[in-house]
Amino acid sequence: MPTKTAIVTGASSGVGRATAIALAAAGWDVALLARRADALQKTIPLAPADAQGRMHAHPCDIANKSALETVVSAFLQRSGNRIDALVNAAGTNIPDRSLEKMTEARYREVFDVNLTGALNTIQAFLPTMRKQQGGTVVNINSIAGQNASVLSGASYVMSKFALAGLTQSINAEEAKNNIRACSIFPGDINSELLEKRPSPPPQDVRGKMLQPQDVADCILLVLNLPPRAVVEELRIVPR
Asked: For a 10 Å CB count at each end of the chain, is N or C smaller?
């Protein structure tokens, strides 16, 4: 049986990093995408020694279509034109996130990563998934994509609501091609994104939040289910 292959965006930290490591440890061949090359390289040594050779770092801004096309081409050449899973874990937010303070430039910054970047990667790999008649897309959303919150801010909320709609659109349009998609809606996660809050929480509060591995475990559950089963939405929150 061929080795399963996956692309993970946002693989330099948080959920993306935990997911890339978990997939490689489970025997998958994984391409790691993120904008920060230095942080991306730090992900690979965190994996078990026997899994590190299955991890391939690709510094890339997924909002940049031409840069993404280069990565996609290299990935498909290495994988023999096969893609089993795409995990969109890249995400960002801004400190001045209220409607009162949000600027157009910062609003677009959030949408470029949280929505446009995800759409770019999805559109880049859907042709291959259609040709092979199968594949799974997992989009890391947020409970802010189900209910607006002042803490998350308007631009983040809007981008995540739109990402939920994009996920539903994949299932509506691509079911005929045996392609499935899942939105995972986590509550607060102890990740680097917390540093972009106007007032980052202290360590004792972070310890009670979801940890990146918790969400990575959910992703592997979705990916390991048989193709006949589709988890369209999954909500996970701290106790």
From this structure: N
Rounded Cα gap, residues 238 and 209, in angstroms: 6
Decide: pTM greater than 0.85.
Answer: yes
Q: pLDDT of 104-148, one tens digit each?
A: 999 999 999 999 999 999 999 999 999 999 999 999 999 999 999
| Domain span including residue 133 | 5-231
Residue 198: is its pLDDT beyond 90?
no
- Identify whether 236 is part of a domain: no
Are 145 and 157 in contact by the 8 Å Cβ rule? The answer is yes
CA distance 134 to 177: 6
Length of the chain measured in residues = 239
Task: Give the count of domains, the chain.
Answer: 1
Q: How far is CA 182 from CA 120, 151, 208, in A?
A: 17, 25, 26
pLDDT digits (tens, 9 = 90+) for 202-214: 999 999 999 999 9
